[in-house]
Specification:
NAD(P)-bd_dom_sf, Rossmann fold, 2 domains, oxidoreductase activity, 6PGDH_NADP-bd, NADP binding, alpha/beta, 13 helices, eight-stranded mixed beta sheet, N-(1-d-carboxylethyl)-l-norvaline Dehydrogenase, domain 2
Length: about 290
């Protein structure tokens, strides 16, 4: 029978455990707070009484934890022999360097790591368009492809264990920055009596950035930061208007002020008449 262990039963781990049960897997689960396993156990999952029992129950182990410090603390509860012969699909978020270090540490104990970065929230697990960044040994990924594809599609990036973590963190950088901008804008909207539902279609149109990304990406790659379409000096003026509108609404202006500061750094660096894409060089230099 197909089988898997899931360690870490936050919302993502719960969704993964459910997906495996839905697909006929024998699922063993473990969580630091044992009651988090109750719903899955009620559906037929097996509750491991220890980390060692969770690891040794199956050769394929999925980790869904807060960070690698949590992973280290959990795996330290089991003897090294419990890791031997296991493949750990590490979907825990952390830096690329931590992913590489963990892979070495696990290899020293006879285990193989597959590093992953899930690109969807928990409700997206098991849906057709869901994807996960993966990196690490390709043969291990291919060996466990059916089990991995229960959760999401596979976006394989290469053998370097840090690549999946790197791509994931770049995407999350963009996500949190964009969502913070949405929430700040909505705070200004609400301060002016405009509800989130009323502004929703306008927010969706504003945050549809595909045109801009597809326009700028080739220019960035080519090193073309010509100010023929936009200029940083124009951005400074626009952001000043945003900041004044924010302040007039009585909303904290620290977020647009931080963006304005970056644009002003671009002007100071001599890029006032260049495209906003020249800010990449400013950000890298800092």
């Amino acid at each position: 029978m197909k089988s898997v262990t899931v360690i870490g039963l936050g919302p993502m781990g719960q969704a993964m455990g459910s997906a495996y049960l839905d697909n006929g897997y024998e699922v063993t689960v473990w969580n630091r707070t044992p009651t988090r396993a109750d719903a899955l156990v009620a559906r037929g999952a097996k509750r491991a009484e220890s980390v060692e029992a969770a690891l040794t129950a199956n050769t394929l182990v999925v980790l869904s934890l807060t960070d690698y410090d949590a992973m280290d603390a959990i795996l330290a509860q089991a003897p090294p022999t419990a890791l031997a012969g296991r493949t750990l699909v590490n979907l825990t978020s952390d830096t690329p360097d931590r992913a590489r270090q963990a892979a070495v540490w696990l290899a020293e104990r006879g285990a193989v790591q597959i590093t992953g970065g899930v690109q969807v929230p928990p409700p997206g697990i098991g849906t057709p368009d869901a994807m996960t960044y993966y990196s690490g040994p390709k043969d291990s990924i291919e060996a466990h492809r059916p089990a991995l594809e229960v959760l999401t599609g596979i976006d394989y990036l290469g053998e370097d264990q840090g690549l999946a973590a790197l791509y994931y963190q770049i995407g999350i950088d963009m996500f949190w920055t964009a969502m913070a901008g949405y929430l700040h804008g909505q705070a200004v909207a609400e301060a002016n009596g405009i509800s989130a539902e009323v502004f929703l279609p306008h927010a969706v149109r504003t945050l549809e950035l595909r045109y801009f990304l597809e326009f700028y990406a080739p220019r960035i790659t080519a090193g073309n930061h010509e100010g023929d379409v936009d200029r940083i000096s124009m951005g400074v003026a626009s952001l000043e208007h945003v900041l004044h509108t924010t302040q007039a609404a009585g909303v904290d202006g620290s977020l647009p002020a931080a963006v304005l500061k970056t644009f002003r750094q671009g002007v100071t660096a001599g890029h006032g008449q260049d495209s906003l894409t020249s800010l990449i060089g400013v950000l890298k230099a800092s």
